[in-house]
Structure formats: C-alpha cells, structure tokens
C-alpha cells in the first residue's frame, strides 16, 4: 500500500527612578497586550473540504444490550449479494462509566455525543465534547477520513451493523461492520474506567487495504466564542519532542509523517489525543476549517458573524490497519500525567504554560496543595498564596528602601558632579567622565542603582506566571468565590479591577520617591493604575484577585515601613529636596 502522506529606584540622575519604572511598565504592557494579540488573533481561512454527511432520524434504543450475533441478524438487510453487510435502520449504542457517556450512532459508526460527567458548559449543563454545529458540517468524532471525498462520504453515511445497541457498561467493547460494493469496514472500540479508549480500524476495497484515518475533525463543545475557538492547538510529539501549533499555523488537510508518540487537538481546557500503538508507522492529517459564528451569542444576528477556526486531527497507519488509544477529556495535570505513550512519555505538556511554565507550573502545584490541604476553595487558596508570596518578598521591599535611602544621601554629590559637566553637550566624550565619577561615587558609598528594582524584577514574573497559570488550568474553570461565578472569567461586576486601580494609586501615593519629577510622579499615580485597571477589566478574575490582594498587602507594608526610622529619614530628605527645588523656582521667577 502506498504510504500515507517599584517604581522607587534612583538612577544616575534625578529622574532615573521614574525612567526605570517607565521602561519596566512599558515592557510589561507590551508583553501583556502582545500575548493577547497572538492569543486572540483570528486565523486565516484555509481551503477546506466539507465532509458529506447523510443523516436520518435515530430509532429508539433498547434499554439493555443485545448479543452481538442477535444484533447482527436483526439489523442485517436482505443482501443483494453475499458480500453486503448493512443495517436496516439507524440505531444508537451508549458506552458509559463514571467519567463519560459516549453515544455512538451506527450511521458512519461515529460519535454523536461525548458527555463528560464531571464538567459543565457555560449554561451549567453536562459538557458535551462534541461541537454539534461544526460536526454537522465537517464530521463527527471517530469518523473516518479519506483523501477521496466520495469515499469519505460513503464511510460517513453507511449504516454499520453494531455488535450491541443500548447501554454498555465498562469494561467492554463495541464493534461496527459494514460492507458494500467491495468496500469492507471494521471498527472496534474498547473502553475501561479511564478517559482512554482503544480503537482498531481496517478498511479494504476488494480485499486491498484503503488509506483511511481515524479522525476528530470538529473542535470541542465548549467552543462558542471567537477567543475560545482561537485557543485551539494542534498537539504533536515526535521522537520525544513536544510541539503545539496555534490555529493560525495549522494547514488544513496537510499530511504530517511520523513517527508520532501522540497527536491531537486541544483548546484551553479540553483535549483529544491519539496515542498510536506503533508510533513509527503513524501518519497524521491536520484539519482546519472555518465556521461562521454569531458575534453576540445572546442576540445572534446572521448578518453579524465572525469566522472561527475549527481544528481537527486524523491519524492513520502505514500498515493499513489503525491501532491507537484515544484520550478525550480534561487538560488536568493529574489526568494527563497518568497517561503514557508507548515510549513512556506522559501528556502533561498538552497544558500550554508557554515561556512562563518554569514559574506557572510550580505556582499551580503550590496553589493546588493549599486547596487540597488548607482551604477547599480556589479563591481563598489564591488569597492565601498571595499572602505567602508577599511575606516572602518583604525583605526585597526593605532592601528597596535601603537602596533608595543610600541614593538620596549621595544625591547632592551627584548633583554637584552633573553641574560640573553641565556645560558639555551630550555627545561630548567628557560626558563619559561624568558617568564614571557618578559610578565611582556609588561604588564608594555602597549604592546599587538597581537595588530598588528587585521587588519589580520578582513581582512581575510572578504576575506573568499567575496569568499563564490561571489562564490554562482547568481547575479554575467555573470555580466560585464570593460574588465571582468563574475565576477563569472576568469579574461580571468589575469590582476587582476597581480594587486594582485603587490599590495601585495608594501604592504610588504612599511610596516615597524623593528624586522623582512632580509631573512624572503625577503620571505614575494616576495613569498607571488606570492602564492596569483597564487591562484587568477583561482578564480572568482570579488574576485580578491576586493583583488587588498583592497591592493592598504592599500598601499595608509600606504604611508600616514609612513609620520606621528608615522611612522617616527618606521622607525628611524628600521634604528638604522639594523645599529646595521650590525655593529655586521661586527665585528664578523673581
């Protein structure tokens, strides 16, 4: 067969601290909005081939399973030839355990419903992994993909003979057979008490193997908005190297040659992954279609729609027979860590923490520990983790104040040095001598010009880590806390973003900045809180909860530190410098 294809640091000059803050803030905002841009950017439309589906009304399923031989005899049509195997009518078979309830139809021997019992949709109903709108156009889960559209249509519309109908408890298996015009198909699905099932598929034409692939072609049932569709990924692992392709990089109907340890698709919270029994022989076809969805789900207008990217994947085998395990379920680290490929790899990397995984994953493991052993609520666990992290960072705040005080003590000497070189242009080589004198002075007095940036250098990576963690862990999906119905979604009352704005303003107001220009200080006190508050307006409320709580803890710590001898000395220096500067301005005006 043919192969299948703190804003507090003083710098060298009087405004160096503010410039440092602005640089950090600019980088922060740029990265934050950059992440959102690439996450929400709509994928370009790809050329697609619509799978033909011939559907008819389903017959009522009996309450219990029928024996395999009896079902085959009852549903076999009067055969026009000895090689014809086809059912007389459409029927359903239900596979069920404590985790899921899968409904197969014998039309195409494919899945019509895949309900995860432990998860709900946005309406509070049991979550169906099948995206019915997309599946009606592009194909249902576990349908067969063929390069030839006519063959694909026959495989999807044929009435297969099931080995059993009605409900089937685990452990067990379900087989489907179909034969007509020389085309013969056999599909067997085995299942147990986990999220993983096993599939065996053979397709022949006049006895010769036919190139077909087992597919999950139409995304997931929790996808209904453009951001949810945009979170789709094609997940691949080749020879132990994991990779995730966003929707905009996935080419429709593209053949990818193995070996593959696993391959599949995922969105933010759920995944379907094929784990072939023989990775070296596996071949994958990436599927990418476009679906028009209403821009406003509550008031849908057929004239106002967006084009959403619907991802899918299909797996085949060069031997002509498909043997693969299939995981379809939540992107929970515990669940994914328990599923291994034939080479021993697990599926944990399907959870996409990105560059910040080195911070995000340990944060989540600590958060999960607090939730399991201290407080059984994710919102309170976030607050407890925030308190612990801020207490751990308290020494860096003290170091920042000490560094700021040292800088203010030598500020008059730094001003004298700058005054000595003020007559030279910026391009004059003697300006380098000024910088050297300032550097030598700082070194002699034990001043580290970057010491005040330490809290910022620690806190902002933590914020990014929290952002990646809270945006990707399924445990926070639909997690309640006080007035918040979902810690993974924005605050519906916008209370937390307002708290972020107020807490950032108080932080700027209470933090001493002796060398900062008044105009820049005003900008930092009003503009930055407004910018960050706006950013938090549409982010998950779990992130806003962390950021607001962290800011209020910082305000409390700053109020206490301002009452220490260290804080009083910094404030006195600030008052003297402000009075001196105002006096110079008054004299200049006279």
TrEMBL record:
Keyword vocabulary terms for this entry: Cell membrane, Chaperone, Membrane, Protein transport, Transmembrane, Transmembrane helix, Transport
TM region(s), chain numbering: 20-38, 377-398, 493-511
Domain of life assignment: Bacteria
Signal peptide feature range: none
Gene Ontology biological process terms in this record: protein insertion into membrane; protein transport
Positions of the UniProt region annotated as Disordered: 44-69
Segments forming domain Membrane insertase YidC/Oxa/ALB C-terminal: 378-563
Domain annotation Membrane insertase YidC N-terminal: ranges: 94-365
GO terms of molecular function: membrane insertase activity
Compositional bias (Low complexity): 45-69
Cell membrane as UniProt keyword: yes
UniProt xrefs under InterPro entries: Membr_insert_YidC (IPR019998), Membr_insert_YidC_N (IPR028053), YidC/ALB3/OXA1/COX18 (IPR001708), YidC/Oxa/ALB_C (IPR028055), YidC_ALB_C (IPR047196), YidC_periplasmic_sf (IPR038221)
Function: Required for the insertion and/or proper folding and/or complex formation of integral membrane proteins into the membrane. Involved in integration of membrane proteins that insert both dependently and independently of the Sec translocase complex, as well as at least some lipoproteins. Aids folding of multispanning membrane proteins.
NCBIfam families noted in UniProt: yidC_nterm (TIGR03593), yidC_oxa1_cterm (TIGR03592)
Assembly and oligomerization: Interacts with the Sec translocase complex via SecD. Specifically interacts with transmembrane segments of nascent integral membrane proteins during membrane integration.
Protein name listed in UniProt: Membrane protein insertase YidC
Native organism taxonomy: Bacteria, Pseudomonadati, Acidobacteriota, Terriglobia, Terriglobales
